[in-house]
Amino acid sequence: MLELLMNRRSIRKYKDKEIPKDLIDKIVQAALTSPSGRNKKPWELVVVTERDILTKLGNARGPASSPMKNAPLGIVIVADPEATDLWIEDSSIIATVIQLTAHSLGLGSCWLQVRERLSQDGKDVETNVKEILNIPDNYRVEAMISIGYPDEEKEPHRVETLKFDKVHYNKF
């Protein structure tokens, strides 16, 4: 697990290569095992493989969401805020599981924040994404994860660059 965490980096450039359905299914299966507060599991996933929809999602926030444009797969994390007051935390956990699973399968990914973000034209990104994906008004969108075969290389984290000074034992 530590090796996986040290090597996973945000990947924003992807090869023009389709992800086989069995790998997508593995990512989804792993995601569905995600823990959630009081086991409420308030999240739902919108798995996107259609190029035109990925392009629209890539434009939803401007340059900040552009990795979605060249990704063969996007997973949008949606949640029901009425199910639990922990929907943001639970959505963040499932997004992290998606990213770690993708990396374990040889894929790269990038977290694209949606909630409380504005597009270049000042429009609420969450509203943009809801319109593109026909998400009901009572749901919230936490983030989008772009996923694909990496077309860039990034150095792993190095132990000497980790912020151990941010760790406190017994007291702050």
CATH class assignment = Alpha Beta
Unreliable spans: none
Q: What best-fitting shape do the alpha-carbon axes yield?
A: globular
Count of DSSP E strands?
A: 4
Strand content: 15-25%
Q: Alpha-carbon distance between the termini?
A: 27 Å
What count of domains describes the coordinates? Answer: 1
The profile of the biggest β sheet is: 4 strands, antiparallel
Give a quick rundown of the structure.
With 172 residues, this protein is an alpha+beta fold. The chain contains 5 helices and 4 strands.
Task: Describe the secondary structure blueprint for this structure.
Blueprint: H1 2-7, H2 21-31, E1 43-48, H3 51-59, E2 73-79, H4 87-104, E3 108-113, H5 125-133, E4 140-148
Antiparallel strand pairs: 1-2, 2-4, 3-4
Helix pairs in contact: 2-4
Description of the structure:
With 172 residues, this protein is α+β, with helices and mostly antiparallel strands. It has one domain: NADH Oxidase (3-Layer(aba) Sandwich), CATH 3.40.109. The chain has five helices and four strands; from the N terminus they run ααβαβαβαβ. The chain has helices at 2-7, 21-31, 51-59, 87-104, 125-133; strands spanning 43-48, 73-79, 108-113, 140-148. It has a four-stranded antiparallel β-sheet, with helices on both faces. The longest helix has 18 residues, at 87-104. It is globular, with a radius of gyration of 16 Å. The two termini are 27 Å apart. The model has no long low-confidence stretch (mean pLDDT 97).
